[in-house]
Amino acid sequence: MKSSIFLASDSTCQTYPKEQVPQAGWGQFLAAYIPGYTIRNHAIGGRSSRTFIEEGRLKDIEKELQKGDYLLIQMGHNDATKEKPERYTDPYTDYKHYLKQYIEAARSHDATPVLITPVARLHYVSGEFLIDFNDYCNAMKEVAEEEECLLLDLMSLSIAHLTEVGFNQATTYYMLDVNGTDHTHFTEKGANQIAVIIAEQLQMIVTN
């Protein structure tokens, strides 16, 4: 029986219906680059580390988690929205508290948790791609160290890739290229590229 990789995340990862093409999430493409695993994408837009749990979505994952599975946790985008207090978390208190619940849930089922820092937005100023959600990235790294949990620093990896390909190419990765306004959500091209980056890191984890 195949082991599964479960995804707990937000709109940058979720699977989109055909009517929303070309908008896409990286979770849609991961299966193509991680042979031998079943991808179970529970990511959904607008959720923070807090609301994903409060809505029972982590409990739903727990019902299926088995020994040998992986739980990938990418949260932070929606945690940072202070203007929406129902989803906001303070990075160094609430956010860390909720992240540890995902880790505990995975380990209680003999599955392996993997923390993933938030993916980069298209934030380009004076010839440089800027890091958003810095406190959330740092807080997640603290949790990974405190809990001895695997960490994939997607923020750094995605910024490095955008820098490598340059602004014009990077623009085609985001829905900005389609609607002129969205610097956060991915086109199919962008989501696929993020999946490639994540898969390269995961292959090193799952084969060790």
TrEMBL record:
Pfam families: Lipase_GDSL
Keyword list, A-Z: Hydrolase
InterPro entries: GDSL (IPR001087), RhgT-like (IPR037459), SGNH_hydro_sf (IPR036514)
Taxonomic superkingdom: Bacteria
PANTHER family reported for this sequence: PUTATIVE (AFU_ORTHOLOGUE AFUA_2G17250)-RELATED, RHAMNOGALACTURONAN ACETYLESTERASE
Family: Belongs to the 'GDSL' lipolytic enzyme family.
Name of the protein this chain belongs to: Rhamnogalacturonan acetylesterase
Organism: Gracilibacillus salinarum
